[in-house]
Amino acid sequence: MPGTCSHPVFARVYARLAPAMDRAGAAGHRRRLLAGLSGRVLEVGAGSGADFPHYPATVTEVVAVEPEPHLRELARRAAASAPVPVTVVAGTAEHLPAADGSFDAAVCALVLCSVPDQGAALAELHRVLRPGGRLAFWEHVRAGTPGRARVQDVLDRTVWPRLAGGCHTGRDTAAAVAAAGFRLAPVERFRWPDTRLPAPTSPHVLGSAVRA
Ligand SMILES: C[S@@+](CC[C@H](N)C(=O)[O-])C[C@H]1O[C@@H](n2cnc3c(N)ncnc32)[C@H](O)[C@@H]1O
Asked: What is the CATH number for 168?
């Protein structure tokens, strides 16, 4: 069905992990991601709605797009107790169900790793934001050392996307945001989780970019 994609096993595992991820630091990253947003916000790939509790009161409305049916249902339940009005709809980042320039801000949390066509998704986000609108993103990205990046490339060509709902570990997402016509603000780079042996998904970026 258009606007949906089904990853039933990944969706159930991810939804169960979400509270533990929040306790391990994700909740803090979500709060920093959403701080300072205002007006109408489009959240893409909202998952089970883990961002919803962290929207500031300056946000008047959130439209949350989620293609996976199980996660979408969980997001609908989470929307009921969100501190701001949230409407959850089916759709994909590559074909956003929204008019040109109709949002003040857009949010991607751990999503641009999973969209099948990152360039098309960013072009759509650019289309639906008003001029001067802000794209806020928190994503795991390509490693900064060639050896680790090579491991990511091998994983991305083989097992990782199949095991992790289409996720890719080695995308240079901040560069892709800039290439899509956004003006990047300084990006925070960090490892999460910050374990001694880094996971392929440890390098993270958190930042925002303005639709020029
Ligand atoms: C790792 S989960 C992150 C969920 C949530 N944003 C969070 O922070 O917990 C990746 C999400 O991207 C969604 N996704 C995958 N392909 C997508 C697409 N083409 N368009 C929009 N969302 C997509 C998945 O359904 C899933 O909800």
From this structure: 3.40.50.150
